[in-house]
Amino acid sequence: MESVIGKIFLHNWQRKIIALLIAFVIWMFVNHSINETRAISNIPVRIINLPADKTVQGLLPNGLLNKRITLTLTGNKKIIDELEPGDIEILLDISSADNDDWVVHITKKNLISLNPQIDLTKNISQVESTDFVVKLSKLVSEKFVISIQQPIGEAPTGYEFLDIWPQQLMQVVSGPEEEMERFKDKRLTVTFNLSDISQAELDAVKSFEQNDEISFPVPKNWKEVTIPFLNYVIEDFNDPEAQNLRIEFLRKNFLPLMEEIPVRIFYPLETLDTLNPNTLSVAPNEWIEKKDEVLIFKKPLFTKDVSRLFVDVVRNALEIVIIAEPETKKQVLRWYLDFINPRELENNYVSLYIANASASKTPFASISKQREELLRERFREYMHRTILYLANGKKLHIKSSIESQQLKITSY
Fold it and tell me: In terms of C-beta density within 10 A (0-12 exposed, 13-18 middle, 19 or more buried), how is residue 338 classed?
């Protein structure tokens, strides 16, 4: 048996080795000489040598067109089988364009291999594709308004969103003249997400004069705008004012107003003949006392959801007003918190805010008319939301009634 196997492999072994080598060479030759044709889609197109005053419609910032091409390639079967769209790029030298509506015919010379393992020059013999047009346009620049929208999401625990400033910026956009003209009256929009801000980030922000209205600097990576009419390209803000972009928050605190607040009785004209200061007396108690003929609410009162600056401005211009109405009309008399001379208080709030901002050299040290109006709106919102609380944290409820020509005022 061994002699038979030895004969098979060792008899004329030199000739057998030569035969194997020849067979291998023939196999290699045949294998590399087999061609295959295959369509490959989604191939990127890159533009080079673009004049400084020109652009191409549909050109992205990375130099690629927003459209991709399908090529039918013929060449070495092994290479053709291995090719992927990411292995090839079509390179167009715009300096060879003969007019602004350049009809492009793709040849083998336009192919660039992105895979260092693939040599397209040696392995691709034929390229077929549908001709397409590359349109050159004049490159122009226009200014567009960026409108900063109301943010989405929720402010971190312990904070409340107040406003954003600036509320609009200007963006210089460059693109094809036709697109710039078509969209020149359009606004760009940006919306921030408050949920992307952590409580720790806001805790770290210092406010001027220990106020609890704080300005959170918008992070650099947020300062981007999408340009819809330029293939939804994302650009960084280029308005110099963008460096001052802030989101303002209120740190929520339980704030003391004052130890005592005046109480005034309002007498409607229609019942003045029966209900007036001469016919109605007020019964003092643990809640109410009279100082120099002025009624005073004695218990300490607090508020929240407003700023310390607001409280400092209004604390000496508050009064509780109780409406004196006949017993048959109201069992519990209506009451409300009144601000004395609110317009002057508003002016004082804005003046103090500006003064504090200037002293602390914040980005808002110089305040425009638009910014001032925003502060006035904030003050009016604070007035609207001011609610009185007792020291135990419960909302103040005043229970007052008229009994036997005597006004009884209590709280619960």
Answer: middle
